[in-house]
Amino acid sequence: MGDTISMEQAALLMEAARAAANHAYVPYSHFPVGAALLTMDDSIITGANVENASYPLSVCAERVTIGTAAAAGHRHIKAIAVTAPRVPVVTPCGGCRQVINEFRMPGGTVFVILEGADEPEITTIDDLLPRSFGPRDLE
Ligand code: THU
């Protein structure tokens, strides 16, 4: 469980992320981002970036989405898709990579779904954040 993701699941997640981007609150950057994650029990949770007049308080789509999942009781995530309608492809910022890493299955990974030319590209948090520091390092 959690060691693979199908192209169909990836496409479904990306569709959910694209829909979520419509709810982005981006009066300052005008750069909407949507995210959708797959929980270990295969439910989908979505989110979008939420900015603030005090700019540094703005929250990325990935962190909104992961926060929603964590607050609903999820502790590990199987995959997360991210999309920004204004650009062909967006990848999670460094801070969000660390937050994604926090919720990986011990011994597993988190699949990260990016927009691709014809179909979504499936990469992993290991690819995006090699030699990471995480919860296990504090045990
Ligand atoms: N942003 C995200 O939500 N996720 C990313 O992966 C990249 C950046 C947001 C933050 C800010 O609201 C806007 O995009 C411009 O940086």
Write the layout of secondary structure elements.
Elements: H1 7-21, E1 34-39, E2 44-48, H2 61-71, E3 77-83, H3 94-102, E4 111-114, E5 121-124, H4 125-128
Parallel strand pairs: 3-4
Antiparallel strand pairs: 1-2, 1-3, 4-5
In short:
With about 140 residues, the protein is of the alpha+beta class. It is about 30% helix and about 20% strand.
Helix count, DSSP H or I runs of 4 or more residues: 4
Major sheet description: 5 strands, mixed
Q: Give the number of domains.
A: 1
User: For this structure, what is the CATH homologous superfamily?
Assistant: Cytidine Deaminase, domain 2
At the third CATH level, what is the topology name?
Answer: Cytidine Deaminase, domain 2
Instruction: Kindly provide the name of the CATH class.
Output: Alpha Beta
What compounds sit in this structure? tetrahydrodeoxyuridine
Shape: globular
**Span from first to last CA?**
24 Å
Percentage of residues in strands? 15-25%
How many DSSP E strands? 5
On the 0 to 100 scale, the average pLDDT is 97
- Strands of the widest sheet, in order across it, are 2-1-3-4-5
Which CATH-level-2 architecture? 3-Layer(aba) Sandwich
Rg on CA atoms, Å: 14 Å
Q: What structural class do you assign from the helix and strand content?
A: alpha+beta
Please provide a written account of the structure.
Helix content is 28%, strand content 19%. It is an alpha+beta fold. The protein has a 5-stranded mixed β-sheet. It is globular, with a radius of gyration of 14 Å. The structure holds tetrahydrodeoxyuridine. Tetrahydrodeoxyuridine binds at residues 26, 29, 31, 33, 49, 51, 58, 60-62, 82, 90, 92-93, 96.
